[in-house]
């Protein structure tokens, strides 16, 4: 079996590539960091013989205000990848987001993800979108809440840390992506059902490292107090990792790396 992962050098892409290779699957990683643009690659490359394309490459974060880059990378490139897979009859599994769900969309980022879901439904019905919910794990992407908590001694929490999230551990996200290849759903959730406030999340990290938490009453632009799970969308049936266990695993992996 052969798969292509766009965004293969990213936080989720790297974890997925490792998991697939352990299963004996041939993985081709496409990433801007390696000098390969996904849009250029799928415009000209011969992808016959590929069983699945995992399209993870994107501009990320609801706080990203660069509309031009988001429209180019999240919408225009997605159309190119989706159309190429549809022409060849190749299964497409792509990264969507909890921010695409009704009521969760607050910015162009969520709008772009919702567009992708509708586009794939119309032009590649065999494709499966995976709505990620607040992914976290070892070596997190820079700029995320966990990255700040791990790399700074003082972290601000807006809305007094009351924002509610469904923090989903990276291993569960990877298993959801593997599941998506063989499923017939056009859209699925990868979502830990456990509801966790950002304050509780920070306090769990604080158990393992010195950390000063600064509570800010104001709310951030484009943020949302509660990021809900759309129950009308099928959720991958996993034993999702409890947040306390996920944070413990992160620090265990950091201790292991330091001993090597």
From TrEMBL:
<protein>
    <submittedName>
        <fullName>SDR family oxidoreductase</fullName>
    </submittedName>
</protein>
<dbReference type="InterPro" id="IPR001509">
    <property type="entry name" value="Epimerase_deHydtase"/>
</dbReference>
<feature type="domain" description="NAD-dependent epimerase/dehydratase">
    <location>
        <begin position="3"/>
        <end position="180"/>
    </location>
</feature>
<dbReference type="InterPro" id="IPR036291">
    <property type="entry name" value="NAD(P)-bd_dom_sf"/>
</dbReference>
<dbReference type="InterPro" id="IPR050177">
    <property type="entry name" value="Lipid_A_modif_metabolic_enz"/>
</dbReference>
<dbReference type="Pfam" id="PF01370">
    <property type="entry name" value="Epimerase"/>
</dbReference>
């Amino acid at each position: 079996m052969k798969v292509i992962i766009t965004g293969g050098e990213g936080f989720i892409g790297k974890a997925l590539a490792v998991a697939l290779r352990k299963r004996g699957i041939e993985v081709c990683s496409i990433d801007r960091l390696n000098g390969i643009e996904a849009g250029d690659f799928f415009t000209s490359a011969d992808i016959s013989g590929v069983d699945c394309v995992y399209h993870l490459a994107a501009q990320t974060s609801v706080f990203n205000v660069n509309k031009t880059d988001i429209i180019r990378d999240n919408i225009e490139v997605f159309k190119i990848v989706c159309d190429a897979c549809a022409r060849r009859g190749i299964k497409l599994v792509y990264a969507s987001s909890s921010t695409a769900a009704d009521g969760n969309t607050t910015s162009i980022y969520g709008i772009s993800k919702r567009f992708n879901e509708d586009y794939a439904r119309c032009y590649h019905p065999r494709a499966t979108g995976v709505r990620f919910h607040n992914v976290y794990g070892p070596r997190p992407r820079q700029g995320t809440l966990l990255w700040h908590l791990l790399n700074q001694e003082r972290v601000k929490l807006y809305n007094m840390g009351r924002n509610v999230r469904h923090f989903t551990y990276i291993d569960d996200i990877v298993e959801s992506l593997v599941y998506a290849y063989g499923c017939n759903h056009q859209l699925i959730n990868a979502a830990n059902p456990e509801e966790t406030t950002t304050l509780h999340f920070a306090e769990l990290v604080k158990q393992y490292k010195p950390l000063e938490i600064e509570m800010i009453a104001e709310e951030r632009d484009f943020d949302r107090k509660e990021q809900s799970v759309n129950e009308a969308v099928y959720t991958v049936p996993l034993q999702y990792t409890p947040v306390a266990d996920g944070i413990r695993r992160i620090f265990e992996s950091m201790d292991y790396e330091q001993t090597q």
